[in-house]
UniProtKB/TrEMBL annotation:
PANTHER family: SLR6007 PROTEIN, UNCHARACTERIZED PROTEIN YJGR-RELATED. Residues 17-33 have a biased composition (Acidic residues). Residues 13-36 are annotated as: Disordered. This is Conjugative transfer ATPase. It comes from the Bacteria. It comes from Enterobacter hormaechei.
Length: 364
């Protein structure tokens, strides 16, 4: 999460540059097009995720003085690791906070009273979940990162972190991946090749109230780098109110058929005219045949009908009875699940009137 820490040193920032009275609100974002990336602000968000564990109550208890202390510790750790020629890790931030608590490091700028020292020690201890040797979190976050292999498509399965109780780990993973993608986008910005960052079940990963402001800060710069964030979700209800600024930046809304309550959920983040609401409610669906949806953008508003090929439908079938049908075909024909899906697809083609009789599926 702190892979870009050395940029702070290269920019000439030092711990004494932190001014408690001049700290921006975490969701403050200037609308100017020439904004410079706020690396320190992004790192502060990552640090707060680890310190509070994503707990809204703990996050609300953080004072401006606490934020200033976190930033000072981040800069102290960035300078220390820069001198050592290695990446900054959460354990480096933890050590910097312990140094602030004990005033035993030359990088400590302000001599604090016992109460402030105790707060620094408390925040350092909170980081222990991400730095304790042998823990899953330490293995995931408290080690130097490596560049992804060069590939046209990279798939990352975050199912383990989607479970209850892993909200902070999920948010921190999203921050780390976004940093990685941002570095690739900056490196390849002159190649004329776009990057698409697609997040499925996005309501799970954006539920952390700190993540939406972070994504807003980063994604705002991406249009200059040819990188685009696509969020796919079936549940806008779970998005926090603070996600409004991020979702307001969306240039395209592609909305598949939905009930009236989901249309109201859209209106939380995007103003809808009565005509737009009417079109959204008019979209329909016929199982196994087609799904209608609506595109909302600045230059186009249209109702569309998606008619996927039968094989795509068969491969995407996840309902219990659909799985049972595939299993029955696998047992009957002693074939793989893929071949069974192809047989389901051929039956769909026949029902759609595309073929007159059932044919043997092509072997793989």
């Amino acid at each position: 999460p702190f892979a870009d820490a050395h940029k702070l040193v290269e920019e000439g920032l030092a711990a004494q540059d932190v001014d408690e009275s001049d700290l921006p609100d975490i969701d403050t974002d200037d609308d100017g097009e020439d904004d410079k990336r706020d690396v320190l602000g992004e790192m502060e968000i990552s640090a707060r995720m680890m310190i509070t564990g994503g707990d809204p109550k703990e996050e609300a208890d953080l004072k401006r003085a606490d934020r200033a202390m976190i930033r000072e510790a981040l800069l102290m750790a960035a300078h220390a690791t820069y001198k050592e020629g290695r990446q900054m890790l959460p354990s480096d931030l933890q050590q910097a906070l312990y140094d602030i608590a004990s005033d035993n490091d030359e990088g400590v700028i302000n001599v604090r009273n016992a109460q402030r020292k105790a707060k620094a020690a408390e925040m350092a201890e909170s980081l222990g979940m991400f730095t304790q040797a042998g823990s899953f979190e330490a293995e995931l976050f408290n080690r130097e990162g490596e560049l992804w292999p060069e590939a046209d498509v990279t798939l990352v399965d975050l199912g383990h972190l989607a479970r209850e109780g892993y909200e902070a780990q999920m948010a921190l993973t999203m921050v780390s991946m976004t940093n990685m993608i941002n570095n690739i986008a900056e490196r390849d910005q002159f190649l004329g090749r776009d990057i698409v960052f697609t997040v499925d079940e996005a309501h799970i990963v954006t539920v952390n109230p700190l993540l939406s402001p972070y994504m807003t800060k980063v994604v705002k710069m991406w249009r200059k780098l040819g990188a685009w964030l696509w969020l796919a979700t079936q549940n806008l209800k779970d998005y926090p109110d603070i996600a409004e600024k991020m979702l307001n930046m969306a240039e395209w809304w592609i909305c598949l058929t939905m009930p009236p309550e989901e249309v109201k959920d859209i209106s939380r983040f995007r103003a809808l005219t009565p005509e737009q609401e009417s079109v959204l409610l008019s979209a329909s669906k016929l199982s196994g045949c087609y799904t209608e949806g609506v595109v909302l953008a600045k230059r186009i508003e249209a109702l569309f009908r998606a008619v996927p090929p039968s094989l795509f439908l068969a491969l995407g079938m996840t309902e219990k009875e659909e799985k049972a049908e595939r299993r029955a075909l696998m047992n009957e024909f002693h074939c793989s699940e893929l071949e069974a899906a192809k047989r389901v697809a051929q039956n769909l083609d026949r029902l759609r009137g595309l073929t007159e009789k059932q044919q043997e599926p092509a072997t793989v």
